[in-house]
Amino acid sequence: MKLAVFDFDSTLMDGETIEFLAQELNLKEQVAEITAKAMNGKLDFFESLTYRVKLLKGLPVSKVDKICHNLPMMKGGKETISELKKAGLTVLCFSGGFKNATEYAQNILGYDASFSNILHSKDNTLTGLVGGEMMFSSSKGYMLKKMQSILKVTPEETMVIGDGANDLSMFEHASVKVAFCAKEILQKAATIKINEKNLIKILDNISL
After folding, report:
1. Which pLDDT tens digit goes with each residue over 100-125?
2. How much is the pLDDT for 40?
3. CB of 61 within 8 A of CB of 121?
């Protein structure tokens, strides 16, 4: 193994960033329902993302950052990433979530880089618009192929870890596919299934 790519929401972090943000506006249940449909592959990811972000319009950026800097990290994440890096792997995070969370979490968890989306703001307030590198259901697979080319890593040398339908595209380009407490649609595509909220279990299932 030379490359490991983790999803962020419900994988490296215990929950969904957008739901923590929506809770601030008393919209958590509405957003969670849409998230669940998207993660189970029953709703187009781009459509679900843009619709959910639109609901966050008016939230102050300071509040977004405060929430994103206090998200609960998944048990065993820091230790697992540390072991992977000791073994010489490049460790990345691909997230359909937001840079406010993934770039802050990089300092905590120690992965090498993250690719995620940007919540657009004006006058320090969310406008309800979003853009970035991970907007579509195909985005993670596309980015993985790019990174494999840059790092000169093959699919056989790649491990990916995720929980939802938008992780399927990167599963296509890796030999080790870890479904972590995952939706059924991803479990079917996995080579390793972990159904306990502890990322250290990954190390029990691979040889570094």
Report:
1. 999 999 999 999 999 999 999 999 99
2. 85
3. yes
**Rounded to whole angstroms, how far apart are CA atoms 21 and 67?**
7
Phi, psi of 104 (to 5 degrees): -70, -45
* Strands of the 90-98 sheet, one edge to the other: 125-132, 113-122, 90-98, 3-7, 158-162, 176-180, 192-194
In this predicted structure, what is the pLDDT of residue 46?
A: 95
pLDDT at 207: 84
Q: What is the pTM of this model?
A: 0.95
Q: Spelled out in words, what is the top-level CATH class assigned to the domain 3-204? A: alpha beta
Q: Which two tokens stand for residue 77?
A: 């994440």
Name the residues annotated as catalytic: 7, 9
What are the residue boundaries of the structural domains of the chain, listed by start?
3-204
pLDDT at 208 over 90: no
- Span between the terminal Cα atoms of the chain, in Å: 6
Supply the pLDDT for residue 38.
84
Give the Cβ contact number of residue 90 at 10 Å. Answer: 19
Tokens of 169: 């595209």
